[in-house]
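User: Reviewer 2 asked us to show a designed sequence for the structure in our supplementary figure. I'm pasting the structure tokens here. Could you produce the per-position amino acids so we can include them in the response letter?
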């Protein structure tokens, strides 16, 4: 009976861990604003990516509210695009990129009913790159006889119309990862206490963790392919999507490495305990 209870508890613990670990990662790195900024901050360290993003963002600026003649606007935009190529070297760039990420997260994970009227609440992600555009506009304005004012918002929708529901489900269920993880820990503890042979619990938990790491890796790759396969209407969307998938894969990869270390350690511990426990006193042969 004790062996049966221990085996069921191990399986239950592994099942809960399979759900808890990805949920905790998503909650910390995507749902929570600080985690999202930290995850995507690495995108700002790629000058080539930032130049492409800034150029595409500049193309989305509207000069209608500044009453610029069409001919002048046609001259100003190429100048802004040229200045955007040196975006990453501008003073205040790091702060502007972080503020861009924070604005974008708030727009994307907010309740659709609280969004501004001009924001499409059906998209899965909305980028507000106004802070980046502001740096470029400021640099051009300082060297131009025509003063330009930076727009308050430069919003770009990313995703498809049915992805807002996915964001809502992730926001609702990702925080449940921590309670499920506690349940998994309790299940493993019960399995260890109930087991007649403690080493079997360690070995089974370790082997199961290694299997889960493989399953998680396959799941991450499948999710990445699914995201990459979605169509977008702008270059900015394609650029951000590609880089965000790469950053997320690398970020969760660190957790996969940790899972492999923990799983391997538990498995080796179980084998070591079995080897030590298998030695019987007096088993040494005498000449």
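Assistant: Here is a per-position design you can include in the supplement:
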């Amino acid at each position: 009976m004790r062996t049966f209870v221990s085996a069921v508890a191990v399986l239950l613990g592994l099942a809960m861990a399979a759900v808890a670990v990805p949920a905790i990662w998503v909650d910390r790195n995507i749902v929570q604003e600080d985690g999202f900024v930290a995850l995507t901050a690495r995108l700002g360290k790629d000058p080539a990516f930032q130049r492409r993003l800034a150029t595409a963002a500049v193309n989305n600026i509207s000069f209608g509210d500044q009453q610029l003649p069409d001919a002048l606007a046609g001259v100003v935009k190429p100048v802004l695009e040229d200045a955007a190529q040196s975006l990453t070297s501008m003073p205040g760039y790091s702060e502007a990129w972080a503020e861009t990420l924070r604005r974008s997260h708030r727009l994307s994970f907010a309740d659709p009913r609280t969004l501004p009227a001009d924001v499409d609440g059906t998209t899965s992600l909305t980028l507000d790159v106004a802070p980046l555009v502001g740096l470029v506009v400021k640099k051009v304005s300082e060297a131009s006889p025509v003063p330009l004012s930076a727009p308050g918002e430069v919003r770009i929708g990313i995703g498809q119309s049915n992805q807002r529901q996915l964001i809502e489900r992730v926001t609702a269920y990702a925080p449940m990862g921590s309670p499920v993880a506690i349940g998994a820990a309790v299940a493993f503890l019960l399995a260890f206490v109930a087991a007649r042979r403690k080493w079997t619990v360690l070995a089974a938990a370790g082997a199961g963790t290694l299997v889960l790491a493989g399953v998680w890796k396959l799941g991450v790759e499948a999710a990445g392919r699914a995201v990459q396969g979605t169509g977008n209407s702008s270059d900015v969307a394609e650029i951000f999507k590609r880089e965000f998938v790469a950053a997320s894969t690398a970020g969760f990869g660190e957790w996969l490495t940790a899972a492999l270390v923990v799983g391997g350690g538990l498995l080796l511990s179980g084998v070591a305990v079995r080897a030590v426990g298998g030695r019987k006193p007096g088993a040494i042969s005498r000449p």
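For the response letter, you might also mention the following. Residues 235-277 form the longest helix (43 residues). The CA atoms of residues 128 and 155 lie 4 Å apart.
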